[in-house]
Amino acid sequence: MATGFDPSGRLPDIFLNTGTSSFTQFLSVAHPELLPGRRPLPPGLNGGDIAPHGTTIVAIATAEGVVMAGDRRATMGNLIASRDIKKVHPADAYSLIGIAGTAGIGIELIRLFQVELEHYEKTEGAMLSLDGKANRLAAMVRGNLGAAMQGLAVVPLFAGFDLAPAEGVHAGRIFSFDVAGGLYEETGYEAIGSGSLFAKSALKKKYRVGVSTEDAIRLAVEALYDAADDDTATGGPDLTRKIFPVVMTATANGTHRLSDADITTVAEQVVTGRMENPGG
Amino acid sequence: MAMQFYASPEQVQRDRSEYARKGIARGRSAVVLSYEGGILLVAENITTLRKISEIYDRIAFAAVGRYNEFESLRRAGVRMADTIGLTYDRRDVTGRALANAYTQTLGAIFSETQKPYEVEICIAQVGATPEQDELYRIMYDGSALDEPGFMAMGGQAEAIANVLKERHDVNADLNTALALAAEALGSVGGENGQTRTLGAKQLEVAVLDRRRVGRTFRRLADTTLTTLLGHEEVADADLGETDAAPPAPADAKPTESAASQDTE
Questions:
Q1: Between residues B219 and B247, the one the model is more confident about
Q2: Cβ atoms of A148 and A173 closer than 8 Å
Q3: I want to staple B108 with a disulfide (CB 3.0 to 4.6 A). Which of A10, A93, B210, B224 is the partner?
C-alpha cells in the first residue's frame, strides 16, 4: 500500500476520509501491520513457550469505584522473565486495564486500547460510555483469536468508574473477557491469570459489598499474596528488592496509581500479618 | 460545440485565492495567543460545532472558514498524531510535523482541484516557557507562517491582530489574556464600526495548560468562562475539562444491545 507516499506530500485520502472515529478501524485500512491480530503466523507452530507470560490480576468493586491490582512477575516456562513488569495500566481518565497471557501482545493491546479511547474522545469531543469501551476491547481481543489458538493468547481485565450509570447500576464496574472476545460483566470482584483461582477463593471469603477503597486495596494485596503462595507463576511482595504489586483505583476523581510509599506500607502489613498466620 | 477558453495560470490562481478569501471572510474570527500559563485559543462561535480542538498532549487545533473542510483536516491531524504516537513515542509527536502535513495537503488541494478549501488553520504547541511556544498559521493555499506570541485568523484578521499587537504580553495571566482576546474579537464586526462586547455564550475558549503533564488541553466553558470573563480568578485545578462527558443513559437509550432485551 502506498499510504504516506503520495508524491505531492499531502495527507493520504484515508486520513481525510470522514470514516469512523475508531482508531483501530482506521489502522486496519491505513496501517494494517500495526494491528496485533493481523500478523500471519507459521501454521502448525505453537508459540506458547517462546514469549514471556504475565500472570495474576485482581479487580474489586468498592463503595467509591474500583480497585485493580496486579503482581509483577512474567514467566517463560520455568524461568522468571521479569520481576517488575507492570500489567495494570490506566485505559483512560476513568478506567483501568490489566492483562494476563502473552506479555508482548498484552502490552501492545493496552497501548492500542489507550490510543483507541483517546482518539475517539478527541474526534467526537465526548468520551465513550463504559459499556462502549468494554465492547471495543472485546472486539480487539477477538481480533487476536488466530494468534491465541497458536499459543499467543492474551486476556484483559477491564474495570472503571461509570460516569453515567444506568439506573440501579453501581458506578464501579468490572468486565472480564475470554480469548474468543466474549464479554462478561462481573459483580463484586474478579481475577484473571494463572493465580486467579487462588486469588478469587481468597476474595470470596473476605469480600463484602460496599467495601471501602482502602480496605479493598488491602484485600487485593492479600489475594495476590494467596495467589503467589500457591502458583509459581505469580510473584509475591519482594521485600528484599522492594518490588510490590501495582495497585490502581478508578473513582469519581479519575484514575490513580498508589504511590510506592503507600503500597510498601500495605504490602509490609500483609507480610507481617502472614508471619503470625500464614493462611491470612 | 463548447469552446475552451484560455486562462493564464496567474489568472486561475488569482481567482481561486479570491474565492477562498471571500469564503473565509464570511465567517467569524479566532485568535490564539501565548500567556504566562500556556496558550489561549479563543474563537467567536455561537454554535456547538467546534472550531477549537485537541490534537495531542501539547498540541491544539483552531480553524476558521468552512466547517466541513476544516473538520476533515482536524480528523486527519488527530489520526496522524495518534499514528505517530503509537508507532514511535508520545514525545515524538510535534506541531511542526503536523503543520508540514497541513501545508502540503492544503497546497496540493489549492493547486490541483477546482475548488480550494476555504479555511485557515492554526496549530499551537505549548512549551515549557512562553518563548518555547510554537504557533503555526496555515492558509487556504498551503502557505505557512510561524507566528510566535499571538495570531488572528479570519475575515478581519489584520484589524484584530492590530489590537493584539499593541497590548499582547506573554507574561500576562489568564484573565488578562482572555479579556484582551475577547476585546480584540469584539473590535470588529459591530454596526458602524462600533466595538462589541462578547460574552461567554458567544465564545469558544480552550487552553493548553503549560504546567500540566500529559494531556494539557482544557476547554473553558459555562461557569468557569463566565467567572474568568468577570475578571475573577479560577484555581488551576478547576480549569475546565477535557472532552470527558460520556452519553447519558437518561436519553432512554438501551444500555444493552437489542438482542439481549426481552422482546414482547
A1: B219
A2: no
A3: A10
Q: Report how far residue A245's alpha carbon sits from residue A240's, in angstroms, rounded to the nearest whole number.
A: 14
- Written as nine digits, the cell of B178 is 482572555
Flag whether B176 is in a domain.
yes
Asked, for residue B264, whether it belongs to a domain, the answer is: no
Residue A245 near residue A265 (C-beta atoms within 8 A): no
In a domain, A78, yes or no: yes
Quick one: cell of A254? 479519575
Number of residues in chain A = 280
* Minimal CA separation from B101 to chain A, in Å: 6
At residue B120, the 3 state secondary structure works out as: strand
Pick from B227, B243, B247: which is nearest to B235 by CA? Answer: B227
Q: What's the CA gap between B110 and A275, in Å, rounded?
A: 75
Q: Residue type at A108? A: E
Please judge whether B76 and A8 are an interchain contact, meaning their C-beta atoms are less than 8 angstroms apart: no
Q: How far is CA A118 from the centre of its chain?
A: 17
Q: Residue B235 belongs to a domain with what CATH number? A: 3.60.20.10
Predicted model pTM: 0.90
Cross-chain residue pair A10–B50, CB shorter than 8 Å = no
What's the CA gap between A66 and A159, in Å, rounded?
7
> Do residues A51 and A99 lie in contact, with contact meaning Cβ atoms separated by under 8 Å?
no
Question: What are the grid coordinates assigned to B189, written together?
Answer: 464586526
The single-letter DSSP state of residue A127 is P
Cβ-based contacts of A30 with chain B (< 8 Å): 79, 83
Of the candidates A132, A119, A131, the one whose C-alpha atom is nearest the C-alpha of residue A21 is A119
In a domain, B171, yes or no: yes
Tens of pLDDT, residue by residue over A128-173, are 999 999 999 999 999 888 888 888 889 999 999 999 888 888 999 9
| Contact call for A164 and B248, based on CB within 8 A | yes
Q: Alpha-carbon distance A134 to A188, whole Å?
A: 17
A-to-B residue pairs, Cβ atoms closer than 8 angstroms: 101
The reply to whether A55 belongs to the active site is yes
CB proximity list for A97: less than 8 A, separation 6 or greater? A88, A89, A90, A91, A110, A113, A137, A156, A157, A158
- A178 within a domain of the structure (yes/no): yes
What confidence tier does B246 reach under pLDDT thresholds 50, 70, 90?
low
Q: Show residues of chain B in contact with A118, CB under 8 Å.
A: 82, 215
| A chain contacts of residue B86, beta-carbon cutoff 8 Å | 34, 111-112, 115
Q: Do the domain assignments include residue B262?
A: no
Looking at the domain assignment, is residue A12 inside a domain? Answer: no
Where in the sequence is the domain holding B150, given as residue range(s)?
13-244
Closest CB to B249: pick one of A30, A111, A166: A166
In this prediction, the answer to ipTM > 0.95 reads no
Instruction: Classify residue B146 as exposed, middle or buried by CB count within 10 Å of its CB (0-12, 13-18, 19+).
Output: exposed
Q: Which of A9, A122, A124 sits opposite B104 (nearest CB)?
A: A9
Instruction: Tally the domains of chain A.
Output: 1
Total domain count, chain B: 1
Q: What distance in Å separates residue B73's CA from the closest CA in chain A?
A: 6
